[in-house]
Amino acid sequence: MSDKPKIAIYWCSSCGGCEEAVVDLNEAILDVVDAVDIVFWPVAMDFKYEDVRKLKDGELLASFINGGIRLSEQEEIVKLLREKSQLVFAFGSCAVMGGVPGLANMTDREGIFTRVYKEIESNDNPENRVPETETKLDGKYDLELPEFYDSVYPLDQIIPVDYYIPGCAPSPETITDAFTAILEGKLPEKGSVLSPTKSLCDTCPRKDSKPDKIEIERFVEPHRYDKLDDGRCFLEAGIICMGPATRGGCGERCINANMPCRGCYGPPNNVKDQGVRMMSALSSLIKTDEEKEIPKVIETLPDLIGPLYMYGLPSSILFRKKIK
Ligand code: SF4
Ligand code: SF4
């Protein structure tokens, strides 16, 4: 039997982009496959949960888990992987912070089921059935489904996490650097985010156009602004760019595509709540001498949660909207 270190890759509540990011390593993935045995990667090959249950505790060098936790099945398997792994990596924005699926914490299970299974115009569901954990067919429990939770949780709210690999999806450089650090035994202290600590603004190609004092009179949504490619700092144009509240390391991917940063790499080390940090930054940029004018400027922004918490609502101090 091979004596290469064993690793697992698992997918919870996410879009699958993180899995593709591993494949996007191109030929570098051959180095990874050469150095380790991937013993569990359900999205790529037909592994079974039973394969993991048979492993000894700690037999896996590392598990890379992407996606937040929304289902009881996901909770069960990440707890199993935690037992079997020496190291657990939260891989990608959804595992690190809840991610885009975490915006569903603005509603709850009932709200989602009502919209998806009862209200959507194209539905054909005359009995208004919604998924149940147990469904009786022929008088027996014939069909079991995992429980769908009211909220999406970042991975570290369910199991202890050793390291965080941020990004939606993590860039090939971020992934390669993480794998190199693991294989060369050069990981930083546990709990670290494996990406630079500086903010994105520090490395942004538009940073030189950022004036010393930005004054925002009204906010503009990117799709209503016809000069996205003018090279100007987005914030200066009144477009919310999460650069000041986001750690660097992504290669400034959105900025280079003439789009503002949405914050997928999460907050820098010294920031607990990315949205609050951004709100505080924006408050100091609003141009007005009259306090009562401030709400009028904020009203030019149709939505605050989307831009400020696109990736991090479940890991924020808010966690979710209070429904009842
Ligand atoms: S706010 Fe955005 S566009 Fe402006 S310097 Fe920072 S990252 Fe670049
Ligand atoms: S620019 Fe911002 S949103 Fe885009 S990849 Fe980088 S950190 Fe993520």
State the name of the first-level CATH class of the largest domain.
Alpha Beta
Total count of helical runs of at least 4 residues = 11
Through-space gap between termini: 55 Å
Low-confidence stretches: none
Structural class: alpha/beta
The major sheet is characterized as: 5 strands, parallel
**Order of strands side by side in the largest beta sheet?**
2-1-3-5-9
Number of strands: 9
What's the rounded overall pLDDT mean? 93
Determine the CATH topology of the largest domain.
Rossmann fold
State the shape.
Answer: globular
Helix content: 25-40%
> How are helices and strands ordered from N to C?
EHHEHEEHEHHEEEEHHHHH
Bound molecule kinds, no repeats: iron/sulfur cluster
> What portion of the residues fall into strands of 2 or more residues?
5-15%
Query: If you compute it from the alpha carbons, what radius of gyration comes out, rounded to the nearest whole angstrom?
Result: 22 Å
Features:
single chain; alpha/beta; binds iron/sulfur cluster; 324 residues; Rossmann fold; two-stranded antiparallel ribbon
Summarize the structure.
The chain is of the alpha/beta class. The protein has eleven helices and nine strands. It is globular, with a radius of gyration of 22 Å.
